[in-house]
C-alpha cells in the first residue's frame, strides 16, 4: 500500500478521477455530521460493499452521488474491487484484510478532509 500523498498525485493525473469534487451540499452534510460520523459511514460502506471476496454487482455497487463517501470512493479509485486492484494493487477475489480496509478508509477520509479545507 502507498503513501496517501503519492496516491493523490497519481489520481490527479486521471481526468476521470480528478473531476470528482464535493458539492456545496456534500460539504454542508460533512460539516453538519462531522468527520467521525462520516468515518463510521465510510467503514460501514467499505465493510459491506468492498470487503467481501465476491461482490455480485462489482463495478456498480457505489453510486456516483448521494453521499460524500460515495464521491470520495470514486475520486480515490476505492469504488469497486476492479479499481482497487488496478490503482492500489489490492487483489480481488478474496476478502479485504483489516489493514487494507483501514488503508482505504484512511485514503477516503483524507480526500474528504482535503475537500473540506476551504469550507466555512
Structural class: mainly alpha
Let me know the number of strands.
Answer: 0
Runs in which pLDDT lies below 50 for 5 or more consecutive residues are none
The topology string of helices and strands comes to HHHHHHH
Q: Would you kindly provide a written description of the structure presented here, covering whatever features stand out?
A:
With 120 residues, the protein is mainly α. The mean pLDDT is 92. Helix 4 packs across helix 7 and helix 5 crosses helix 7 (98-116). It has helices spanning 4-12, 15-18, 24-33, 35-50, 68-75, 81-88, 98-116. The longest helix has 19 residues, at 98-116. The N and C termini lie far apart (33 Å). It contains seven helices and no strands. It is globular, with a radius of gyration of 13 Å.
How would you briefly describe this protein structure?
The protein is an all-alpha fold and 120 residues long. The protein has helices at residues 4-12, 15-18, 24-33, 35-50, 68-75, 81-88, 98-116.
Amino acid at each position: 500500500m502507498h503513501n496517501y500523498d503519492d496516491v493523490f498525485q497519481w489520481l490527479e493525473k486521471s481526468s476521470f478521477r480528478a473531476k470528482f469534487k464535493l458539492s456545496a451540499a456534500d460539504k454542508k452534510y460533512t460539516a453538519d455530521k462531522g468527520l467521525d460520523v462520516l468515518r463510521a459511514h465510510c467503514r460501514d460502506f467499505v465493510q459491506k460493499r468492498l470487503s467481501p471476496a465476491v461482490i455480485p454487482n462489482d463495478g456498480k455497487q457505489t453510486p456516483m452521488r448521494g453521499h460524500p463517501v460515495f464521491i470520495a470512493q470514486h475520486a480515490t479509485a476505492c469504488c469497486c474491487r476492479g479499481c482497487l486492484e488496478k490503482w492500489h494493487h489490492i487483489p480481488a477475489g478474496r476478502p479485504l484484510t483489516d489493514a487494507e480496509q483501514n488503508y482505504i478508509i484512511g485514503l477516503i477520509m483524507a480526500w474528504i478532509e482535503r475537500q473540506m479545507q476551504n469550507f466555512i
